[in-house]
Amino acid sequence: MWFLVVGIFACSASLNDAQYLLGLAEGEVCSDRSEGQWICTAHKQCTHVDLKVMRPTICSFKGKLPIICCPPKKKMSKAEMSCLRYIAEIPCPIKISIPGVHIAVVGGKESKSKTQRHMRQTAENDTEELPPPSIVGGQPAPSRKHREMALIGYGPKNNIDWRCGGSLVSELWVLSAAHCTNTADSGPAAWARLGELDHSTNNDDARPQDQRIVQRINHPQYKEPLKYHDIALYKLESRVLFDQYVAPICLHTAFDIDEPKGTVVGWGRTDFADDVSSRLMEVDITLIDNPECRRLYGSNDPTAPRGIERLTMLCAGEKEGGKDACIGDSGGPMVINQPGSCLKKQVGITSFGRDCGLPNSPGIYTRVSSYVGWIESIVWP
């Protein structure tokens, strides 16, 4: 009897001190919850959960092996499935270094004539100076690093005014900020340019393609001039062909972000009155927790009367100042790296800020994970 007690205790201890036996056999339902039925399963078969964290209840024993109450496998979201498809199907640019020349090809598919033309253009402009950074404390983004980026333009085709940014999330849809959807002087968002690097020259390492925006959908809870739910989707006129210059971004679906910093990308604007940078810029910014952000930002902004909401907003900045996205594109993404993939994962959308680049003046971003369900209902219905 003593040996039996020791055996049960040792096994229970290894499963984080499970408290009691349910007296149920393998295969029986041990719990019925909103997310589905929990089934009594051999602990070695319940591989989709961390048993050290979950502290499972033991249904019974099969010999010396515990049968535990195992939750159903989490159903993968449409956004997560699309991300896996993108990673599997879209190759990364392969960079080839030649002194004075920078070339990137995917799987050797770039034509010889295009490669040679790019070599001539790059060599001719090898001494070209990059424009000064517009994102505070930022730097020019490397070519093809942010293939998800979209420029959002306004006005007629022969005189497009590029004012906002966005990110490509599928072959037909661009994600941006709701406050970018309409302007007082130039009307609604009308154009999306993909595959761009520097829109002031044709001699950069880019292959831009312009798409007409045919549908604009703001989040139903966005109420201008309030800053809450500042997120929108823009439908393109035709499907985008992914290549070494254009690729979609994955969406961060978990609430928590396991990174200390996010990278903000844009062409240098958050306010329509500011000058823009023609060159794509990026800056790494420290994420700030909500209590600290609410303290720093305060509650005196009439456009954010409830303060900075933890569930729908992200906060980022440097306490000492010097780095900010307040002159970066509104609507552009805050991204993090995705291990094992050249495709980025989007955690935020540049929304608003104040006291650009000054100490203790964080920028505010729409928290993408809180809107994945809404995005999926439109992009992947």
Structure characterization notes:
The radius of gyration is 25 Å and the shape is globular. The strands form 5 sheets. The protein has a 6-stranded antiparallel barrel. The chain is built from 6 helices and 22 strands. The protein is α+β, with helices and mostly antiparallel strands. It folds into 3 domains: about 1-70, no CATH class; about 95-110 and about 115-125 and about 135-235, Thrombin, subunit H; about 250-380, Thrombin, subunit H (Beta Barrel), CATH 2.40.10. Mean pLDDT is about 80; it is low at about 1-20, about 95-135 and about 270-275. The protein starts with a helix and ends with a helix.
Features:
six-stranded antiparallel beta barrel; 381 residues; six-stranded antiparallel barrel; 31% strand; single chain; 3 domains; disordered N terminus; Thrombin, subunit H; alpha+beta; globular
Q: Care to give the gist of this entry?
A:
One of its GO terms (molecular function) is serine-type endopeptidase activity. The protein has 381 residues and is α+β, with helices and mostly antiparallel strands.
